[in-house]
Amino acid sequence: MTDTSDQQNKGSGWEVYRRMLVYVKPLWFGFIASFIGYSIYGAGQALAAKWLEMVVDAVQGGAFDQRLWLALAVVGIFLMRGVGAFIGNYSMSYIARETVHTMRTDLFSSLLRLPTHYYNRNPSGEMLSRLTYNVEQVTGAVTNAIKITIREGLTVVGLLGYMVYLNWKLTLIFLAAGPIIGLVVSIASKRMRKLSRRLQSSVGDITSVASEAIRGFQVVRIFGGIDAERARFQKASLQNKRQFMKLVVTQSLNTPLVQLLIALALALLLYAAMDPVVLGGMTTGGFVAFLTAAGMLTKPVRQLTEVSPIIQKGIAAAESLFGVIDEPGEADSGSRDAGGVRGDLTLRNLCFSYPESDSYALNGINLDIPAGKTVALVGRSGSGKTTLASLLPRFNDGWDGELLLDGVPLQEYALSSLREQIALVNQQVVLFNGSIADNIAYGAMAEASEEQVMEAAKAAHVSEFLERLPEGIHTLVGENGVLLSGGQRQRIAIARAILKNSPLLILDEATSALDTESERHIQAALAEVVKGRTTLVIAHRLSTVEKADLIVVMDSGKVVEQGTHQELLEKGGAYAALHAMQFRD
Ligand SMILES: Nc1ncnc2c1ncn2[C@@H]1O[C@H](COP(=O)(O)OP(=O)(O)OP(=O)(O)O)[C@@H](O)[C@H]1O
Ligand SMILES: [Mg+2]
Questions:
Q1: What is the pLDDT of residues 436-479, one digit of tens each?
Q2: CATH superfamily assigned to domain 345-583
């Protein structure tokens, strides 16, 4: 992260923290429980000092008859502290885990509705590290900070109260160190937040580099990328180490400095306490207990000064989380129900450019696709075929010109209703870690009967290779289908689209990974499937599109030719040239 964003986010810390607290608000009962627990713990601390006073006074006064109950008291005090700490810790951890869970699911839900360009811009590793690392940091800030504040704060209150009760003048002298401690803590906090932001972004880098190298392990090895990847990872990891060490330096200087200040206060105390005016009528026991209580304050005060770094880390993490949560989702202002559309598509002077680029990916497309017809998009790589197909489910938005479904602009349909009408086989097949059946009956189709799934599997020629698999349709496919061949994966994706049985069907290079034999089978199956629905077929192999009702030839985002296979061949233009090239042999 750069310095400019450090600057931008400055000062909004308290607002961010308030927003973090909203997450723990519903868990107020947990706070009450932990407050009670830590109060017991804090009281135990003060009682321990009181106990010491009584022991010393008893020994000095020769009151040995008190030994039994004094001995029992120490066990009681520790028992009390233990029970208090347990109740406090348990309730606090409950709040923490509950918050992690809520925040994570909220963040994940936001990820699921972000528009395409967000995914294009943000490395997946960064998104993942937000879900894992940042969420934990936020929770630490909300719960650990509150835990320490309550537990140590109450201990301080208890001990100070007891000290005031023993000798208020001495206590005031001791407290003179307070403002200086505050100053040290506040300087350290500012630096902590800045460093924490950098630490987070370095965790994101580590995840990104690692996930790329893991996914692409074959390419890494074949193309001699091992050293480069190792270096890349080392750099990211080293950066992480450096940021972390800077953080540690700040934090570690903070603590001893505060302790030194307390020691100075103690020294002052001891010096002043030797003055009879200040000492007043304190007993030896009282004096020893006073010094002990002041000494016992070191630990809670030190821990209290560590609250601020924890909060700063949390605020830095929360800023980036809320950034994602606040990111606008996909534009979905339409309300029309697309259920029952026929599937007439009209494209009028359609232009589109990707937000990242300043040239048109689609440049003035005019097309009429009547319902139920099959249209093939052919053309050079990069001519805009996939881009055109991506507009129909509105994966890419913000085009100029008109794109009408049954005469209605696509934007007027509710997004989910529109997408219900479309089945899609992507250029890059996506399978989920589960069985073949799960992948065919994915998502909203999970309720499909085994019979329906088998039927779709048959139509897409999935059943052909099922017999050779150990568990048939219930065989697991591995992450993104790694346990299957490319052609098998593609057939499962086709089966999924067939099962959906929607009025619009998009097949982007859906048969590219199949051999000629299987392709012919699938062509036959698809010939059945496309009947009665508007189908957009994108293919490089022209043999697969010959039977289309309309062939559209694209080049540089424009339609250069359209017609049937026969018409275009006779015309002797771009299509005929492409055709001649492919069938030369
Ligand atoms: N996410 C993106 N951001 C920016 N530009 C993109 C993006 N995706 C594609 N493009 C650009 O848009 C143009 C059209 O790409 P598109 O994927 O539609 O081509 P295509 O016809 O499907 O090619 P192929 O036959 O190779 O699949 C290309 O110039 C490409 O560089
Ligand atoms: Mg493409």
A1: 999 999 988 988 899 999 999 988 888 888 888 888 889 998 88
A2: P-loop containing nucleotide triphosphate hydrolases (3.40.50.300)
Residue range 13-325 in CATH 3.40.50.300? no
**Helices within 501-555 (DSSP H only):** 516-529
- The closest residue, in CA terms, to atom 18 on ligand 1 is 384
Element (H, E) at 41: helix 28-61
Q: pLDDT band at 420, cuts 50/70/90?
A: very high
Output the pLDDT for position 536: 93
Q: Is the pLDDT of residue 7 over 50?
A: no
By most ligand atoms within 8 Å of CB, the mutation choice from 351, 387, 556 for ligand 1 is 387
Q: Kindly tell me if the per-residue pLDDT of 337 is higher than 90.
A: yes
Q: Name, of 51-60, 139-148, 277-286, the range with top average pLDDT.
A: 51-60
* Residue ranges around ligand 1 (CB below 6 Å): 120, 354, 356-357, 361, 381-387, 427
Which residue has the least CA distance to atom 17 on ligand 1? 386
Contacts of 462 (CB under 8 A, 6+ apart): 436, 440, 456, 473, 488, 491, 492, 495
Cα–Cα distance for residue pair 291/268, rounded to 1 Å: 12
pLDDT of residue 459: 87
CA of 382 to the centre of ligand 1 (A): 5
Gyration radius from the chain CA atoms = 35
CATH topology of 13-325 equal to that of 345-583? no
Q: What are phi and psi of 424, to 5 degrees?
A: -140, 135
472 vs 308: CA distance, rounded Å: 58
Report how far ligand 1's centroid is from the alpha carbon of 386 (Å): 7
> Which of 143-147, 177-181, 305-309, 327-331 has the highest mean predicted lDDT (pLDDT)?
327-331
Nearest CA, atom 6, ligand 1: 354
- Residue 373 to residue 344: CA distance in whole angstroms: 9
Lowest mean pLDDT segment, chosen from 172-176, 228-232, 273-277, 405-409: 273-277
Instruction: Pick from 352, 383, 536 the residue to mutate for probing ligand 1's pocket: most ligand atoms within 8 Å of its CB.
Output: 383
| DSSP, res 11 | T
How is the chain split into domains, by residue range? 13-325, 345-583
For ligand 1, pick from 386, 396, 509 the residue to mutate: most ligand atoms within 8 Å of CB.
386
Average pLDDT, the chain: 86
* 568 phi, psi to nearest 5 deg: -70, -35
| Residue 336 dihedral angles phi and psi, to the nearest 5° | -70, 140
- Per-residue DSSP letter, 143: I
Tokens of 255: 């603590």
The set of residues, in sequence order, having a beta carbon less than 8 Å from that of 114 and lying 6+ positions away, is 324, 327, 329, 330
Q: CB count, 10 Å around CB of 91? A: 23
Q: What is the DSSP letter of 434?
A: S
Q: Model pTM?
A: 0.77
Amino acid at 392: L
Is pLDDT above 50 for 348? yes
Q: Kindly state the average pLDDT of the residues 499-525.
A: 82
C-alpha–C-alpha distance, residues 9 and 18, integer Å? 15
